[in-house]
């Protein structure tokens, strides 16, 4: 093995016996194409859904299920010992139960016992199985031990059933795993475990008539990055999402809204038991005073009537002034085009929030981009610059500032 191969992150992809096993092929493709060295360890049941040849061909590594294969290599110990990340996707109720109770009757469960790296479970099962007290207790046990268990999505299940238990989007599981790997040894710290955080994202749209609206350029990518990274650090995350085309982040409760007033209602309701609220959404300051029920027609030879505007609720100021609970942390965002820091400091003082993320916006800056650059201002006068880079890096830097503040308020 050459030096370049040794530096590739080593990922074990465990696959248990659920119908969602075929979706794990997409997760495997994303992991391998992004440069990870992946070893697939399916259970015997998983091979009823996707064969061993498929896993081996897609990963470029042998895929075995038995501890008795290649015994001289001691696979039941070595695979887990050498991994940088173990992700089980899908994780059935049976697999979660075995992992929680330390059973080791096949290669995958042995690997879970020997792994000393971060372990991620992506459950998929019927709603009744997920909600059963035994499964919930097993999940709680795994989380208490430091494992990351992604809550399943809500949607179509096997057959005609619909509910919570659907396998999360493979692209989002991949993004989740990348954040865990990026944090390295710190991933096990789970510094947001036991915390409920609310994040708003995306832009609001204020309707003029049935076909037109006032909006902005926000893509929602920064807010989604904040939600994703918080979940990877153990938080229970509620994402209040404005108008965006992004898939729901894995393991996050998502509330979809359209207008500023809908955002106001949803955020205040979600914030009632939140430890931290991060207002990353691009909220419209104004809305049309009158909504025209029919399409506004163009009349030849006549200029259009001026559009009268009224103010929308100032959600950030309201959250800061009326904390829903003692010790609640409120974080705002300021998108500025000039005098960025001066305007940011003034906004921090005016809004009364604890932290304010200030970034310059414009063509190819912040909105719609996968990268961002910002300065995080704190109410104690400190400033934390975040260099240009992926929006997930900015998100992790922000949570690095939030987590110790929350720790000071823990009973």
From TrEMBL:
Domain Flavoprotein: 10-177
GO molecular function terms listed in the Swiss-Prot or TrEMBL record: FMN binding; metal ion binding; phosphopantothenate--cysteine ligase activity; phosphopantothenoylcysteine decarboxylase activity
Protein's pathway: Cofactor biosynthesis; coenzyme A biosynthesis; CoA from (R)-pantothenate: step 3/5; Cofactor biosynthesis; coenzyme A biosynthesis; CoA from (R)-pantothenate: step 2/5
Record InterPro entries: CoaB-like_sf, CoaBC, DNA/pantothenate-metab_flavo_C, Flavin_trans-like, Flavoprotein
Residues binding CTP, per UniProt: 285, 295, 313-316, 333, 347, 351
Cofactor: how bound: Binds 1 FMN per subunit.
Domain DNA/pantothenate metabolism flavoprotein C-terminal: 192-403
GO terms under cellular component: phosphopantothenoylcysteine decarboxylase complex
Record field: transmembrane: none
One annotated GO biological process: coenzyme A biosynthetic process
UniProt-annotated stretches for the region Phosphopantothenate--cysteine ligase: 197-411
Keywords: Decarboxylase, Flavoprotein, FMN, Ligase, Lyase, Magnesium, Metal-binding, Multifunctional enzyme
Reactions accelerated catalytically: (R)-4'-phosphopantothenate + L-cysteine + CTP = N-[(R)-4-phosphopantothenoyl]-L-cysteine + CMP + diphosphate + H(+); N-[(R)-4-phosphopantothenoyl]-L-cysteine + H(+) = (R)-4'-phosphopantetheine + CO2
The UniProt record lists the keyword Metal-binding: yes
EC assignment: 4.1.1.36, 6.3.2.5
Pfam families noted in UniProt: DFP, Flavoprotein
Cofactor: Mg(2+); FMN
Region (Phosphopantothenoylcysteine decarboxylase): 1-196
NCBIfam families documented for this protein: coaBC_dfp (TIGR00521)
General function of this protein: Catalyzes two sequential steps in the biosynthesis of coenzyme A. In the first step cysteine is conjugated to 4'-phosphopantothenate to form 4-phosphopantothenoylcysteine. In the second step the latter compound is decarboxylated to form 4'-phosphopantotheine. Catalyzes two steps in the biosynthesis of coenzyme A. In the first step cysteine is conjugated to 4'-phosphopantothenate to form 4-phosphopantothenoylcysteine, in the latter compound is decarboxylated to form 4'-phosphopantotheine.
Classification via PANTHER family: HOMO-OLIGOMERIC FLAVIN CONTAINING CYS DECARBOXYLASE FAMILY, PHOSPHOPANTOTHENOYLCYSTEINE DECARBOXYLASE
Family: In the C-terminal section; belongs to the PPC synthetase family.
Name this protein carries in UniProt: Coenzyme A biosynthesis bifunctional protein CoaBC
Lineage: Bacteria, Bacillati, Actinomycetota, Actinomycetes, Kitasatosporales
